[in-house]
Inverse folding.
C-alpha cells in the first residue's frame, strides 16, 4: 500500500486478555520497527525486524510481549495477559533497508486496558 | 549512549508568532538528526532532517540547523499557523537501526 497500515486503530480490552496488533509496512520495505508511545513518555523502542528476523528484542518490556513477521511483510505484536500499564499507543514504522532512514510511521493502535 | 533532550511543553503561541523548540543530543560520532511531527490521532511524519554539521533542514516553513559545536538541532518557524498545532519530536540516528527520540513537545497555536 501507499503507507504503513496498522490495525485495529483502537482496541479496548479487559485486564488479563491477550491482544494482537497488526502492522502492514510499505511494500518493499525490508526493515520494520515497533514503538510504544505512553502519555508523556515519548517513544519507546520495542523491536526491530530485518526481513523476518528480529536481531534485537531487548526493547520488549516483558516476556508477555512477543512479535513476529512473516513473508517479510506483515508483522504482529502480541501482548499476553494484558495489564493496565500496557495501555499506550503502539506505533509501527518501516524503512527501505536495514538501518535505513527515514522511517515511515503508521497511525498507531491505541490500546486501552480496563 | 545516545540521547535526545528537547524542551518540555506544552508551548502555546498566538498565530503568526515565532517558534523555537530546543533540541540537544548526545551521541558517539556524528548522528543524523530529524524532526518528526505528530498531528492529533495520526502517526509520526518526517518534517525535516540534516545529516552533517552545518546542514540546514527545511520544510513547510520550518527550519533546523545541525550545530556540532553546541550539539543542537533547534526547530524554528517564523510565523506559526493554527494548523501547526501538533506534537514535535526531535530524533537522532547514529548509524544503527534505532532512532533515539526526545519526549516530544506539544505545540498549540491559538487564533
Amino acid at each position: 500500500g501507499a503507507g504503513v497500515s496498522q490495525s485495529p486503530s483502537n482496541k479496548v480490552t479487559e485486564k488479563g486478555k491477550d491482544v494482537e496488533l497488526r502492522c502492514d509496512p510499505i511494500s518493499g520495505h525490508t526493515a520494520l520497527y515497533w514503538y510504544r508511545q505512553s502519555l508523556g513518555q515519548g517513544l519507546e523502542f520495542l523491536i526491530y525486524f530485518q526481513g523476518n528476523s528480529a536481531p534485537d528484542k531487548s526493547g520488549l518490556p516483558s516476556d508477555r510481549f512477543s512479535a513476529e513477521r512473516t513473508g517479510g511483510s506483515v508483522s504482529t505484536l502480541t501482548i499476553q495477559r494484558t495489564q493496565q500499564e500496557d495501555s499506550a499507543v503502539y506505533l509501527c514504522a518501516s524503512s527501505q533497508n536495514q538501518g535505513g532512514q527515514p522511517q515511515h510511521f503508521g497511525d498507531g493502535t491505541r490500546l486501552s486496558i480496563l | 549512549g545516545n540521547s535526545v533532550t528537547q524542551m518540555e511543553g506544552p508551548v502555546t503561541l498566538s498565530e503568526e508568532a515565532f517558534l523555537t523548540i530546543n533540541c540537544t543530543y548526545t551521541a558517539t560520532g556524528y548522528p543524523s538528526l530529524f524532526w518528526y511531527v505528530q498531528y492529533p490521532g495520526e502517526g509520526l511524519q518526517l518534517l525535516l532532517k540534516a545529516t552533517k554539521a552545518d546542514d540546514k533542514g527545511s520544510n513547510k516553513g520550518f527550519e533546523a540547523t545541525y550545530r556540532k559545536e553546541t550539539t543542537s538541532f533547534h526547530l524554528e518557524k517564523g510565523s506559526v499557523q493554527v494548523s501547526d498545532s501538533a506534537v514535535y519530536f526531535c530524533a537522532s540516528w547514529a548509524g544503527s537501526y534505532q532512532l533515539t527520540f526526545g519526549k516530544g513537545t506539544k505545540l498549540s497555536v491559538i487564533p
